[in-house]
Amino acid sequence: MKRHFTYFSKRLLLIIYGIEVLIHFTIKDIMYPINILFYVSAPLLLIIGSLVMSILFFKKKKVFYVLIMCFLSLLFYWRVYYYKTTSIEKSTDVYNTVLFWNIGRNGDTPFKIIMREIENVSPEFVGLVEADAITNEHLKEFRNKFPNYQIQKLDGGMLAIVKGKIDVIRYHCESDFYKFNVIDFNIKNQKKSILIADINAVPFDNRTSSLDMVYRLAKENNCSFIMGDFNTPYESIYFNQFRQDLRSFRNVANGFTATWPYGIPLLEIDQIWSSKNNTPISLKKVYYNTSDHALLIGSYQTITR
Questions:
Q1: What pLDDT was estimated at residue 170?
Q2: Distance between CA atoms of residues 274 and 242, nearest Å
Q3: What is the pLDDT of residue 125?
Q4: Is 177 exposed, middle or buried (0-12, 13-18, 19+ CB in 10 A)?
Q5: Model pLDDT, residue 89
């Protein structure tokens, strides 16, 4: 009886694993509750799962060989699709940068890191989420050190830093689903808009309304960039409109494109998108142990007509 139960359990695990592979590559997060299973079908987890299943079915040679082929195929797919190599040196033209980071509700250390990054790359715009711990003293210190930048705390625990002048800020929020700010600013007499988003991390939520709202208002406000912690993998069907009408910096990333959790290439939930008026050149991902999210630095060129 015990032996029969063990064999039944292994077959059940194999069926569940097969469903996870099917969901990741075909069904995706099209409906609830499939969206929950989609989030746990990240390629790295599927690769680990294929190894575990191979061990469990080692004595069933036909199944074992299929699982080994599955492992090799997933490994190849993961390496090709999620690992990018882009060198900014290939472009000799002038480029600008934007920076995004979920600082994880920490204050002093992330603030010092941001100050250092601004000294190093001189970004046009910096967007931070979960920045509640940034204090007025931090803002004062920043203004003293970088008088050519404007820094401002935003609703929703966000913060914006502009190498120019902030004109208008519009905050949108539905507490159980999303919050984001649209910022109009002026850099060298050029007017631009940018959207900073923070989407609810609860996996049970349907992302349709949240990402539709972000996309719609970004288009209405002619945003040059959309950046945020979307808590939604890049492969999600809810990014279909983004992929059709915008440019993703993930296509010019360096290293694995995943941004969460700290140091592990699991999910690509922090993203920077650009309007088609800009050409992304490079996306640099940097980890600091003060946050479980990667810091993103996107370099781009503006298309002149």
A1: 97
A2: 9
A3: 98
A4: middle
A5: 57
**β-strands 278-286, 83-84 pairing:** unpaired
Supply the pTM of this predicted model. 0.93
Residues of 263-285 as b/e, b for ≥16 C-beta within 10 angstroms? eebbbbbbbbbbbeebbbbbbbb
What's the rounded Cα separation, in Å, for the pair 261 and 86? 22
Q: Is residue 294 a contact partner of residue 263, using CB atoms and an 8 Å limit?
A: no
Encode burial over 112-134: b for 16+ CB neighbours within 10 A, e otherwise.
ebbeebbeebebbbbbbbbbebb
For 179, the token pair is: 């919050």
pLDDT surpassing 70 at residue 90: no
How many of the other CB atoms lie within 10 Å of CB of 14?
Answer: 18
Distance CA 37, CA 16 (A): 10
- DSSP string of 214-258, one letter each residue: HHHHHHHTT-SEEEEE-SS-TT-GGGHHHHHHSEEGGGGBSEE--
Average pLDDT over residues 181-208: 89
Q: Which residue has the higher pLDDT, 303 or 42?
A: 42
Q: What is the DSSP string of 150-218?
A: EEEEETTTEEEEESSEEEEEEEEEETTTEEEEEEEEEETTEEEEEEEEEE---TTS--HHHHHHHHHHH
Residue 88 structure tokens: 């900014």
Radius of gyration of the chain (CA): 22
